[in-house]
Amino acid sequence: MKLKDITPKSFSCEAGGCPAIFETDRGTYLIIGTKVDSVDSLLSGRIGPNETAIEVPAGLIRGIMTK
């Protein structure tokens, strides 16, 4: 898989622990954010065994939509 970092400049950082978004050569996106374990009841049945819920700042998504 090849990744292209499309994280808005305002969210870029040098160290780990920063939200980020990448475009893949598979026609998908890879998003890095904070893992959220307490949403199981809110997302009842939506999270599959090979999936996890992550939380990212709204500005991260808005930032890529304005590119």
Short description:
By secondary structure, the chain is of the alpha+beta class. The chain is built from 1 helix and 5 strands; from the N terminus they run βββββα.
Describe the overall structure.
With 67 residues, the chain is α+β, with helices and mostly antiparallel strands. It contains 1 helix and 5 strands, in the order βββββα. The two termini are 23 Å apart. The chain has one domain. A hairpin with a 4-residue loop joins strand 2 and strand 3. The protein has a 3-stranded antiparallel β-sheet with strand order 1-2-3, with no helix packed on it. The chain is 12% helix and 24% strand.
Which descriptor suits the 3D outline? globular
Instruction: Work out the helix count.
Output: 1
Give the strand tally: 5
The strand line-up of the biggest sheet is: 1-2-3
Q: How many domain modules?
A: 1
H/E topology pattern: EEEEEH
Which structural category fits the helices and strands? alpha+beta
Enumerate the spans where pLDDT stays under 50 for 5 or more consecutive residues: none
Q: What kind of sheet is the major sheet?
A: 3 strands, antiparallel
Q: What's the rounded overall pLDDT mean?
A: 87
The fraction of residues in strands falls at 15-25%
Taking all Cα atoms into account, the compactness measure Rg is 13 Å
Helical residues, percent: 10-25%
First and last CA, distance: 23 Å
